[in-house]
Design a protein that fits this description.
7 helices
């Protein structure tokens, strides 16, 4: 069976669509996973690793008031990061990760609090992208790797949902709304 990143690249290539990545806690791991997949250059536009909070605003267009009020670890921040990188890099799809990998809490959020987001073509017609709220266990490396797996799984769900239509609602229900 192929890896999630290989499947993402395959589906995007078949559809003739592109992907951009915005990362915070994963620090480039999502982009590394995607570019390790054969044929990634057909679909991958690039990535922005906005580790510092102000870069989320300056490079990705995340609302400064939102960042000031809630900090960088917030579902709306994740959604705006995904939409912002999609726009900034001219891609059909944008995905994003933000959260607390540890060892200490951040902005009052406990270690393991992670938000992953997807923004794509269907988002323009609906109420925005899709965000998954995660509460992960493990050490820093485990939280970061699970964040990579989770954002790729969310993107795969959205890509597959676009192709299958009605199955998308069933998938969302089965997966607890994520």
């Amino acid at each position: 069976m192929s890896s999630p990143a290989t499947e993402v690249v395959r589906l995007l290539t078949v559809k003739g669509e592109t992907l951009a990545v915005a990362e915070s806690l994963t620090g480039g791991l999502v982009a590394a996973e995607i570019t390790a997949a054969p044929g990634a250059s057909q679909a991958f536009r690039g990535s922005v690793t906005a580790y510092a909070t102000e870069l989320k605003h300056e490079l990705l267009g995340v609302d400064a008031d939102l960042l000031a009020a809630h900090g960088a670890v917030d579902p709306q921040v994740a959604a705006q990061m995904a939409a912002g990188v999609r726009k900034a890099l001219g891609a059909d799809w944008g995905i994003a990760t933000t959260g607390v990998a540890g060892p200490d809490e951040q902005d009052g959020k406990p270690v393991g609090t992670v938000y992953v987001a997807v923004d794509g073509p269907a988002s323009e017609l609906s109420d925005g992208g899709k965000v998954a709220s995660l509460r992960l266990n493990g050490d820093r490396a485990e939280i970061r790797m699970e964040s990579v797996r989770s954002v790729l799984a969310l993107l795969l769900q959205e890509l597959a949902g676009e192709q299958t239509g009605n199955e998308r609602a069933q998938d969302t229900e089965r997966n607890g709304g994520f």
